[in-house]
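User: What would this chain look like folded?
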Amino acid sequence: MGKNCVIDARNIVKIYENGAEELKVLDDVSLQVYQGDFFAILGPSGSGKSTLMNILGCLDLPSTGEYYLDGVDVLAAEENQLADIRNKKIGFIFQKFNLLPRLTAAQNVMLPLLYRGEDEAKAFQLAKEKLSLLGLSERINHRPNELSGGQQQRVAIARAIIGSPQLLLADEPTGNLDSKSSGDAMEIFRELNRQGNTIVIITHDTEVADQVKKIAYIRDGKIHENY
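Assistant: Here's the prediction, encoded as structure tokens.
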């Protein structure tokens, strides 16, 4: 039996209108990512990769084209359905970590489950387990400003995986890290992929892209190579 297609984007076009002018940021992009893939979308600044990430993450919609996420027709979904998809099907990992400064590491990690209405005690226990897996068992009650950049990134990864999403979507996940922390983060991603997680990394860094299994190159809003 073939692998499930997690991302099926077909002929995606994204146009931004500025008065009478139109700016085509994505131009006929098609992309398929299958269950268990470890995938990079590699491109320079201004290539359209951030816009593509926003569409793949259901944070934005294309101007034209089709997008199916884990079999769901995203363009036919209502806003509340899109919010549900973002919460349950996608784990986001951002370059700037996006941790809430007043919350502890455990409280930040719990958030996706609390948004689903999960029991707080159960969510806290799961958060502790995920943080322990990532080597942060001694840091669960620390706030972000009490953590190093690498530790903050691990908290962000724990938050992304706590709800067992179909897709982990990482936007420049090593961009704010030193070389050692960057290497540690990529090793965590490799281990998560070995465990069966589907991971897509958006990056401009060829050293990061060299560590994944499949790469799609994007330039001037077009996918130029895909393997």
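DSSP finds seven helices and ten strands in the chain. If you want, I can go into more detail on any region.
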